[in-house]
Structures are given as C-alpha cells and as structure tokens.
Amino acid sequence: MRRGDKMYGMAHKRESLLAQIEAGVLDDSVPVASLLQKCIVLGGKAGSEKMRDWARQELNGYKVDMVPPYRHVHTGLMAIFTNRAGFNGMHQRIVPTMFPQQIRDILAELGVDMETAVLAGGIGELEALAKRDEGEHHLMPPWGDVMVDTLQKHLVTPDTRVKVVYWPLSDASLRGLLVKVRTALAELIAELIASTPESQDVPDKAAADQAVQYVITGERATVHVTSQHAHGSGVNIAVAPSDGVTVSGAGTAIGSQTASGAGSSVVGSQFASGSHNSLTGRDGAAVDPSARQGRWARLRRRGWMVALTTILGGIAGVAAAVLGLFTWLDWTPWWR
C-alpha cells in the first residue's frame, strides 16, 4: 500500500461512526443524546435491532416496567399538604408505614416502591433538567394521582388537602445518572471495538446484539456445550449460540442434527437415519430407514388390518408347507 493510500485509510477509519462515537464518549462536552442518535444509525448499519431499540428508548423514554436498573435512583416520596383553600403548603415525607396494612399490600402487589425514583424520561429531557442547576428537582411518579387520592382518603383530615406527591432528586443525583448512561455507552463501544476487526468499520450483528445485552443486563452470552449420543467412536459436540457445529469421528448422530454457518463441518464417516435427514460429502452416507426398523414396526405403519392379514397369511403358509412335508414322507400326523 502506498503512503498516500495508508494515510487515506487511517483518515477513513477515524471518520467511521464507531470512531466518532468513541471520541464523543471521551469528550464530556458532547451531549449523550447526540451520541445515542449515532448509535441508532450504527445499529442500522450493523443490522442490530437491539442496539437501535436501546438507543431509541434512551432518547424517547422508557415504559415504566422496562426502565433499566441504572435509571433507578434511591430517594424518598414527598407530599405537599395545604389547607382547603390551597395555602400554607407544608412538605412532608411519606413512608409505607403510614398506610394501613391493606393499602401496603395493594402497593406491594402493584410493584410500587415509594423510595425509588424510576427515571423513564428521554435523555434529552434529563440533560436539559440538569443544565438548570436548581439544586433539587421534583419528579412526578407515574402513579402520583392515585397516591394523592389514597392519601386524601386515609391520612388527612377534612380540613387538609393533598396538593401533589413527588420524588425529590438532587442535582448531583441527576448528573450522576447522566454519567451512568454515558458509562453504559462507553461500555457498549468498548465491547464493539474489541469484537470488530481493525479493517472493519461496522460491527457484526451478533457482536452488536451481545454488546447491548452485556450493557443492559451485565451478563454475557452463555455458551452451552451439549454431549450427544453417538455409536462407535463418534463424538458429537453441539455448541450454542455459536453457528458452528462440529461432528467428528466414525459414528451415528441420533436426533435432529444441523450444521450451518461459517466454520461448520462434519468430519469422518457419518450415517444419518430417519425422515428428512441428509449428509453431504465424501464420507457421508444415508441409511435406508427400513433397514433399521423391525418387521413388526413396518407392518404397524401400514395399518393394523393389513398387519393382521399378513400375519395370518404367513401362518397359513407355514401350515401348508408342514402338511406337504408330511405327505411326501408318507407319515400320518397324530391328530388325524
């Protein structure tokens, strides 16, 4: 490669989406929302719906029951109590023990955690909120209206009014959440860089999907090795979720066997039996299913009436042969 071509290749690599996101993650002045938008494009190029879904939900907001753990912030539930006219507001913390046991049981069944703020909003909204530098932010729980009605019925006097309930979130906690999202994005990009060849600008779909799984759940894809039965000296190895399946040695694979994808191979003298099974290659041989079945099994497949007729016909044939032998020997059986 000429020097000019090499320099062009390096410049082209620096301009790739993956490289742009990597540089943006390391620059605190670049909004997280901008990086997530590039992730949507990168996920589209890689064919990874998981990456696009994650970036899209971070940008547009999550459903309450789908918010990832790093968006859960421990806090307390506060309520503003006023007089009937709505004046003389007083802020008071609400704890579960203030409710009757029946109400607490209902809240537990609904999965309501009063002291954990679930930040489901879009990342752009949270970044804008953090820029206000207000010291403390008031976030409304999704079940806030129901909680107001419950408090009004069970905890206040007729002369008191519950104006609103909210989660108090400090500015430091909010900025900490944004750091967590940027960190999750950094982990995603680090995983993609580690699994993408240097000469390749766009990660593979499988690598992108596994990276998103690791970022969201903290768990890597599990490789399952299954030992399967093989006759003779054969050894069958099935590995998932990898596409490559290798069967080696002389033997017979029993069950549904599939070898697909790059790197898959079938080595040695292999025999396949049963319907819809096939082997290709020099040493592959398909065994006629009827040769491995018993006579009764073949008859049973033809129907019980046909099987019965065949059996009775066979018995009659044997009897006729015996009588013919007796006649030829000029011997009279004892039952005559």
Automatic annotation (TrEMBL):
Residues 273-292 are annotated as: Disordered. Residues 16-203 form the AbiTii domain. The chain crosses the membrane at residues 304-329. InterPro entries: AbiTii. It comes from the Bacteria. Keywords: Membrane, Transmembrane, Transmembrane helix. It holds the Pfam family AbiTii. This is AbiTii domain-containing protein.
